[in-house]
Amino acid sequence: MILIADLGATNARFCITVDNETYTNQANYPIKEYDSIDNLCLKYFSDHALESVERAVIGVAAPIIGDQVSFVNADLKFSILELEKNIFQKGLIIVNDLELQGHAIFNLKPEDISYIGGKRLNDGTKILVAPGTGLGLAGIEGSSVIATEAGHINIADKNDISELKEIINNFVLEKGRNPNYEDFLSGKGITFFHKCLSGLSDETLTSEEILKRRNDEHCDKTIKLMNYLLSSYLKYMALVWGASGGVLISGSIVNSLLSEEHYSEFRKNFEDSDTMRHVLSEIPLALVKTKDIGFAGGLELSKKFN
Domains of the chain (ranges plus CATH)? Predict the structure, then answer.
């Protein structure tokens, strides 16, 4: 019995696998209500009456650069060695949450993918991008998945949209620094865009509500600007990584943000380059529809215990 956990900055998602192919006992807990990974795991075990769970695959919304792990967008940190000693004595795999999700790409089914344009994924280098509470990016090269912190790159200066320039200026005035892509391509970015566009000083709508109100003028403009910024970001990252195998985007935000009516404009902006259009036009671009992509990636990593 192996625990699979996908621990983001907002939600902690858990499941169990016994065969490395399927999972059961799914559960979701708010990260902010727990002060340690140990307590989160023990709460899950208690709620589901689970015993003898001594192995785990855990993805965390944090860079893994040593034994001590600190979440980027949540007040949580832990020691990998202590977690293994206290709970998972027979084996523990800790990876970045986008690295966890990236392992799901190796076994996607055709129905899991919606292509934005005509190209299909191939064996070349790929990237997976997932906006959420933060902005994650993982590179996929052969059978390897590489975690990054590419969401923290500052937004490129070049853009021709006056509303976006104004939003950037508002952010600088409010925060005292230049925005990075994670500031905007995230749940908090959606609400900030809407606040700036609507002129409301006290934002009352959640990011989920904004993405559902397509008939509202300010919500619709927020969606269009977010799609523009996301497609631009994917363009830059595809060129940096040489992602000839494809660019994939996943998560609840992009699945709400990007509908088929936006595909043509999204693809057009992705390919917009004075010098690299011929390269970008050949890169597959796809929306991953899989809901629990972290669990799917965890199943792949759990096979390492065999």
Answer: 2-104+293-305 (3.30.420.40), 109-288 (3.40.367.20)
